[in-house]
Predict the structure.
Amino acid sequence: MATDSIKNTIYIKAKEHPVNPPELYASHLGQHFIDKYAHISAAHIKVVVHRWTRMTVDGAPHPHSFYRDGEEKRVVELTATREGIDIKSGISGLTVLKSTGSAFHGFVRDEYTSLAETWDRILSTDVDSSWSWKRFPSVAAVQEGVERFDAAWEAARQITMKTFANDESASVQNTMYKMCEQILEAVPETEVIGYSLPNKHYFEIGMCSSKNVSHKCQALTAVSPDLSWHKGLQNTGKDAEVYAPQSGPNGLIKCEVSRK
Ligand code: AZA
């Protein structure tokens, strides 16, 4: 098919069908290609929903004005075939940070290890989360009980934020596993939950002058110099108040948890 015809089809189907929830719109679109063209065996659809939140003006919701309240997206990836419709829903780009309640210790230490153990650190990431649904036999099956999609998105978002905030995190791995378990429990029609979380580090300025000097730390002194040279300023451990966000490389931690 010409991509131009595909583009036209996307517009026309958006006019003919509701675009919310995105899972239903993607199903209509995907099924169309399978039904209409005998030579097409699979249609892959990706829908990205941006945030537009209604403005509050003079204390009242404005009738026609909106703002982009963050770069978080709601994402649907769908494959339609003659065997059925496979849907993966998700969230991407939800940036979160907690200032304490996160540790990382007890990991393998050997001649390749330079990372100091920590019992208290800043934890920050850009959440990329997905939940894959059991196969739907038809668009009608997607349509029936269609409110499941918004409910699952709300639940996944709430579970992600509540667990991130309240968990005394032993590691990114442990916290993300807890999120997956809860989404599987909350949304019975899902089969696989996935997270992909970059570990966005914020280091105390001065940590390289503390007793736990690591090779990695020494390499970062250009970015995070000790502040004690200035009138003996202390900024490590209990005195830490000023932190420097680190650029890459950093860990990208992924998991998938399924029922089986
Ligand atoms: N998991 C964490 O939570 N923090 C880390 C890791 C890890 O695998 N590696 N460095 N810091």
The pocket of 8-azaxanthine is lined by residues 104, 115, 171-173, 199, 251, 253 (CB under 6 Å). The first strand starts at residue 42 and ends at 49. Residues 209-213, 218-224 have pLDDT under 50 and may be disordered.
